[in-house]
Amino acid sequence: MIPRFFTRQTKQEAKDLSIYDKKLLKRQMVEGYTIDAEKSMDLDDGINIEINDDIYYVQVSIADVAELISVDSLLFRTAKQRVETKYMADFHIPMLPEIISEDKLSLLPNDLKPTITFGLEISPYGEVMNFNIRETIFKNLRKLSYEQFDIIEKEDDNEMGYKFRKLAELANLLLELRRNKGALAIYDLVKGIYTNEEGIIVPWQKDFAHISHIVIQELMILTNKTIAQFFAEKDIPFVYRNHTVRQNAPNRGDILEQINTAILNPQYLETLRQRSSIWFNRATYGTTVSGHYGLNEAVYAHVTSPLRRFADFLNHYIIKSYIHKTEPPFDLKMLNTLSSHINMVVQANRDEKDEYFKKLELNKSYNQLKLISESEYYEMEDLKFADILKAAVTYDDLNDYMKNALNLRFENSKLDSKMLYILLFKAKKDSVLWYEFKKKSMAYLVDSVGMALQLLNIAHQKFLLKTFTMNAYKAEDGYRADGMIERKEFKVEVFGEVGFKRKKDAIHDTCLKLMSQMHQIKPALEYVEGQDENIKDVGETNDEIIEPVTTTEPIVIDDMAKSLEKLKKHFSSEEKDTIEAGKPTEKKDTNSINSWAFDKDVNYVSKIMELSMKYKECSTPEFEYELSGLDHQPEVSCTCKFSIGERLIEKISKSSNKKSAKQHAAYLVWMETNILRIGFEERRKDHLEINNFVGLLLELCVRKKFSIPSYNYESMGSVHKPVFECTLKMFYEGEYLSFKEFGPTKKLSKQNVSEKCYNYLQTKIVPDNIISSSS
Fold it and tell me: Distance between CA 143 and CA 115 in Å, rounded?
């Protein structure tokens, strides 16, 4: 628990700091505006813009906290302890004392403050052409709220209004470019929702309903991305912001499609939020680059909020050491330690904040519980009903109105996963009030294929289950699935006993048995594959082959020793010896999974995924699996296919389980690409300069203010010889244009259809206005 108040010694050290140093006053002065919540006083970023020949010259000035606070000071140790400013419902706990964060270093008007200014020269189509870093002194021309910016941008015809309109124009362009690039970036001013940094849709707060918030968001993202790329290319140790996706997540295109569906149909928003929490890992800080999935950036960092975030504060020391050409105060080992500390505190703060707001909402819902009429229960929207149900379950209070409304929802099949989760995982085990509804919930799950799996995933994500595993595989008589759940007081295992035609049916049957044993409630009906063509199908599963086990009898195992003995029969004699010795066997075969060259701690799948993101000529890696061997000694063969230009790399690896086979196949591909990438960067640059019709078309559309083209893909051909059809759609002078072209990869099909559209538009535009490739 971080203390709310600062010690007397910390306050005194903050009070003694002076910003009126002769060295600071000799800095170049820059002017700009701050935009934040109306009552905010901790202003750490100011912006300004100039326009010249359609080029945007943007200044982002950030409070120079590292100039005044040394790494051996009490203030630095205090910031390290707190890690970030915590914002609660009606108060906040600052990272640094208010005399610094809301006065001495805050970019308030009527005073000059030391800053680091990032200058960005941006082309009309959103590309950063040049950028520079300077130590400056900042003059705030005006402190604006989000609402005030919007009013000036819409109504004022003076210089300030013109600048703000240009900022809004640039921000919308940057947001659209990020969307087209594949970022999970939604900001809907009408529906009142947006995607946060991790790509999860959330309803915005009151201050977020303005174009000015998009302006600040997009400029900060662009600044953070540009600085991160700069220091990564210089190979200077830096604290990066990484966000990764889990293996069970759909591909990016499917996620974007589900986000768009949820925006059009708000009733799916809550379901999508729950799925997102299962798909994505939480963003973390570290010195290695793992990419940022939500933003779809290969490298990203935080530098724009040093008054509020310790990670930004650390990076400012590194930036300043680069400016002065001195050694940074932190080496790589220290940065790793500090990054781990930041992640731990941020996670604890996030959990504490979530719990705080959940408690507020829970109390609010419980107060409404007895004030709601019977008719209001029947007409209530799903989200509100789930909130009221959660309050009733938490306080073990079930009135007749709620009871009748619940029964009606069961009869009409109007329960979603959130309501079922509350009834099955939140209601007290020994509560007489909720037992009948637990039984009804289990019966309801029988006909809802995929929902039982979804509930178990949510329970695992929320740490109500210590362990949850689900392994599905294809046997001679069809699909089978084995599952295991574990809590502190019990462990339940279920082994598939029936061959199903569909993998999802096998998983569903096993999930039902797991939940039935966990809750000690038998479903009213046994699930039979294909028993009803109208059965609800609420979830898809991945059809990859996973290591099988052959035991067919459901059992409950409480003894870990028994569990280990039971598992040993699935290993070879050599592997049994390895388990007994407690260490891996040593093998010298360089192509073996256990070779010294293969580092099991490295995620080689992620490494080749990074290549596909970085180089347009690289395909997305494809993995194929084949199961062989005996039931008690299975062998999984994984084939990894990866293309660089015209060269197809294909490697095969075998193991006793899917995960290790996949990693080693990716490793073999990665090793071969080390040779092929020599000289590839220069060839890539030449190729892009000549053939980047996607960029040329985008440049043309931005300059001429046409609509931004959209692209859709359809996979054709075989696995070994894939063909992609890319469809481009856009509006041009009231005409709806549509073009189709083909290619061996998505990227090449996109280039081909962009070239076709670009050439068509050239015939429609006055020749003098055509944008040549040399521009």
Answer: 16
